[in-house]
Amino acid sequence: MFEKLSTSWELVKASAAVLRADKELLLFPVISAVLSMLVVVTFVVPAVLAGVFASGVADGAGLPVAGYAGVLLFYVVQYFVIFFCNTALVGAALIRLRGGDPTVADGFRIAASRIQPILGYALIAATVGMVLRAISERSGLLGRLVVGLIGFAWNLATFLVVPVLVVEDVGPIEAIQRSAGYLKRTWGEQIVGNVGMGLVFGLISLATLAVGVMLIVAAAATESAVLIIFVAACLLLAFVAIALVSSALSGVYAAAVYRYAADGQSD
To answer: 146 Cβ partners below 8 Å, 6+ apart?
Structure first.
């Protein structure tokens, strides 16, 4: 267990070093977030204007068949955008971990070369996500706990799918199988590293919120609307920055864990 903790710490340090050396890697989660919002607007706005959701709620019958097909398509496109940008991030991170000097263009070039398996994996992930969500919505507390455990196991088993797609010339199903196989060697590093980073960024977020609330209260005491808006905007930007760093570091960590699982290197 101590060996797992030590290895996890080394992998986190290696990931942080990559992010410090290549701050442009932060562009990948930025692009992912922007594209994801565009996908939401593209799908949700026409559906709302067409009354797809309202009609289902009004008659108590839920969404029509076309509505479920639209939701599945939305999930597939959304997952594709996320996985495509994650593949670009992981590809660039692996170049740095192997001693290279990657660019944003290098990352997207790698992702573009794997566009078909990324789309296939997006379809699989979207289907699994919809099925688990449907079961959860129709289950009691125990059923939701079971679904939650299944979802947790799925996330663990697929944690290294993106790095596998980047490095190994395989399709999405085999990538899932290989990711699950690597889990036998890296389950400790996956859990410890992700939980550890989650706790750190959670504490940073809480501290930022506490400081932000105090600053907003102080600004409110001045009765200056401009100062209040300025402090609130700074707080929002701080949370956005935390989210971007957390997302980028998580992607780099996946690359580092894969490199450790495949090559046995942790630095």
So the answer is: 139
